[in-house]
Amino acid sequence: MPAALAAGAFQDYEDRYQVAIATSETAATGASPAPRGPNLLRRIASHWADYIYVAPALGVMLLVIGYPVYYTVYLSFFRTSPSLSMNDISFTGLDNYITVLGSSSFRDVTVNTIIWTVFSTAIAFLLGLGAALALNREFLGRGLIRGLLLIPYVISAVAASYVWRWIYHSDYGIIGALSMQLHLSDRPINFLDNTHTVLASLIVVNVWKEFSFAMIMLLAGLQTVPDQLHRAAMVDGAGPWDRFWHVTMPHLKGVTIVTILLMVVANLNGFTIPWIMTGGGPAGASDIWITQVYQIAFGRIRFGTASAYSVILFIIMMVLGYFYVRALGGKDDGRSE
Amino acid sequence: MSAAGADAVGGRKVDGWRWAGRIFILLLSIFAVLPMVWMVLTSIKTQFAALQYPPEWWPKNPTLDQYTTLLNPTSDVGREFLGYLWNSIWVCTVTTILGVVVAVPAAYAFSRFRFPGRAWMFYAVLLRNMFPAVVFLMPLFILMRYLHLVNTGWSLVLTYLTFGLPLSIWLLKGFYDNIPPQLEQAARIDGATRFKAFILIVMPLSSPGIIATAIYSFIISWNEYVYAVTFLNDQDKLTLPVGLQRFFTEYTTNWPGLMAASFIMSVPVVVMFLILQKYFVRALTEGAVKH
Q1: Are residues B33 and B75 in the same domain?
Q2: How far apart are CA A287 and CA A113, in angstroms?
Q3: Could you give the number of structural domains in chain B?
Q4: Same structural domain for residues B160 and B33?
Q5: CA of A70, closest CA in chain B: separation in Å?
Q6: Which residues of A touch B147 (CB under 8 A)?
Q7: pLDDT tens profile A16-75
Q8: Which of A73, A191, A234, B209 gives the lowest tally of CB atoms within 10 Å of its CB?
Q9: pLDDT beyond 60 at A11
């Protein structure tokens, strides 16, 4: 940045700074902070130095998010040649969308995706809720247990996938061996090469990996429940179950919505575990949307079709994203315009 | 706190719930920890011992061979593995530092200034959490080819930056909201320059937020796999998650070796997480909960 421009920015920033103080004071007293109306351009001009602060962040986000979104939507209307140079593309209208929605596998993959997302989210959330309630009281070693439970969440999904592949191994896996030793089964169990068990086996890994995320979110939520309310409810004769439903849960509502939304999106995007453990197999039994898109794009090099698929996923995510922003929106503690 | 109150009033019935909670936590801890214990136990077995039936529940002849091979720079395997390790460290460190440098001014502006489009931009940044990684994969791959960044660590740095940014900005904005502008004003009256006031007053007060966002972006980058496997091809550029996958295809029966590699890969993030647990938890839960 030229020195003159920088100096100008600083000068202007000085003025803005005074306004910021004034604004935060008016915000504190509850008055409407900013004038709205036709002089928007003048306001933008008078605030130009503020944008310098957010420009690097916005620039990176635009490059790595804005451009790809635009390009994905664009490509989804084109037929692409199976090469990575995007020279030779031709407009095909909605053909790619018809190909995706009309393909025979789309229904199966969608069913798998729903099973994967719903069960992963529900089980991980319930385990996390139980753990949060149990950890919400002081006891010796509480911090240690919380740390232990969070380790699966922080380690790499690739490492976790290989560990579980070894645990599930059809010949030397520890679960199979254990169930034979206990005479629960007469031969080693094949978890991952069986179309009936593969998805459930993957869900177990996913739950193992992410239940502590729900736990830590809900634990933070539980700390906002006032003790007095519990005492008051006890004085009124409410049992633990009543207190859970009528005192604790209403306070957890906001956290619960945000947590479940984040987990649903994380699971819809949960690429690594299925990809490393089974690659979508056997016979597509563990194929979900996201692994399918990857295969179409980088396995079959059909970027056009994959883009259309992506746009469909994108719309679904955006609907969820709308609810996410709305759930968070109330938390900007009245300082937003 | 509430537990003590519950005991006083609730009596026996509450005790039942408490025991149920303890047993539940015990079972859950076993579920969480056993796979990792099995990983470590396998990693100190010989290859022969790992493929026994019935399995050796406890290694009879524990050996650190796999670790010494992986960490030995003179062996082929060791050179390969240490290369992946170094690439991961480089990418994650650069990402983390740049992330802080970019997020701090943005968060400060979102907190202090009232410029048109502020709210809109703020939520647009937050929406990043919602985007499916694979949707961005193709266009970003094409973009990185266009920028000649494919097969370099920079393609990953640029991409990983955007993972951490929304959270960093959100978290740091919360910190700046709680620092009264009057503090900076006082420093200005005492003769500090604008920049000095920021460095000496605002930065120290927000350092917990900076630490939290830094370890969050480091851990996320360290574990990232999808972009790394797509953007990187050359063996000497791979980061650990992709390197681990390559190990698996090359030495597919050497389970102790793979488990040792997985263990080494997990150590930095687990240690970092355990030391800075408080901050990491804060990074995860910030925004969802009013403090």
Answers
A1: no
A2: 8
A3: 2
A4: no
A5: 9
A6: none
A7: 444 444 444 334 333 344 455 557 777 777 777 778 888 888 888 888 878 888 888 888
A8: A73
A9: no
C-alpha pair distances (Å), B18 with each of A134, A147, A215, A245, A308: 8, 21, 17, 17, 52
Any domain includes B61: no
Where residue A140 falls (left for φ over 0; alpha for ψ -120 to 50; beta otherwise) is beta
Q: Does B121 touch chain A (CB under 8 A)?
A: yes
Same structural domain, B73 and B21 = no
CATH code at B188?
1.10.3720.10
Same domain, yes or no: B83 and B178:
yes
User: For residue B19, what are the domain limits?
Assistant: 2-43
**Which tens digit of pLDDT belongs to each residue from B22-39?**
899 999 999 999 999 999
B37/A contact by beta carbon, under 8 A: no
Q: Which residue, B137, B92, B130, B95, is CA-closest to B227?
A: B137
pTM: 0.83
Tell me the ipTM for this assembly: 0.86
The phi and psi torsions of B60 (rounded to 5 degrees) equal: -80, -40
Report CA-CA distances (Å) from A331 to A11, A171, A250, A254: 33, 52, 16, 10
Residues B158 and B80 placed together within one structural domain of the fold: yes
What's the CA gap between B98 and B87, in Å, rounded? Answer: 17
Q: Are B91 and B239 in contact (CB under 8 A)?
A: yes
In a domain, B56, yes or no: no
Same domain, B29 and B90: no
Residues of B in contact with A154 (CB under 8 A): 219, 223, 269-270, 273, 280
Q: By C-alpha distance, which of A250, A231, A254, A233 is closest to A242?
A: A233
Dihedral angle, C-alpha B197, B198, B202, B204, nearest 10 ° = -90
Q: Which one-letter DSSP state was computed for residue B289?
A: B
- B146/B238 same-domain check: yes
In whole angstroms, what is the distance from residue B215 CA to residue B164 CA?
Answer: 10
Nearest to A273 by CA among A125, A143, A161: A161
Distance CA B122, CA A267 (A): 25
Q: Going by CATH, does the domain composed of A106-329 fall within 3.20.20.70?
A: no
Give A192 to chain B, closest Cα distance, Å. 16
Paired strand residues for A78: A91
Shared domain for B15 and B100, answered yes or no, is no
A154–B35: do the CB atoms touch at under 8 Å? no
Tell me if B227 is assigned to some domain: yes
- Alpha-carbon torsion B263, B266, B267, B271, what sign? negative
B244 occurs within a structural domain: yes
Q: How far apart are CA A209 and CA A202, in angstroms?
A: 11
Domain chopping of chain A, boundaries = 3-75, 106-329
